[in-house]
Design brief:
0% strand, mainly alpha, 71 residues
Length: 71
């Protein structure tokens, strides 16, 4: 969550299970987030994967699955 809060103003009531749809994140924001996460975790991500993940918990699971697949 820290990476997100550094780059985006998410507010105080956001949790890891808050759906991205409730945050009104448009595709451009999700593309930017995908780039940030890809660079930070050396795991290629795209906007569609983040949309499917749906929330922060989903993104964490996605990143963990990519790390396992790369090992």
């Amino acid at each position: 969550m820290q990476i997100l809060s550094e780059k985006f103003d998410l507010g105080d009531d956001i949790t890891p299970t808050t759906p991205f749809a409730e945050l009104d994140l448009d595709s451009l924001v999700l593309v930017e987030l995908a780039v940030i996460l890809s660079r930070t975790y050396q795991a290629p991500l795209d906007e569609e994967e983040l949309t499917e993940a749906g929330n922060i918990d989903g993104v964490i699971a996605l990143l963990e699955s990519k790390r396992v697949a790369a090992a």
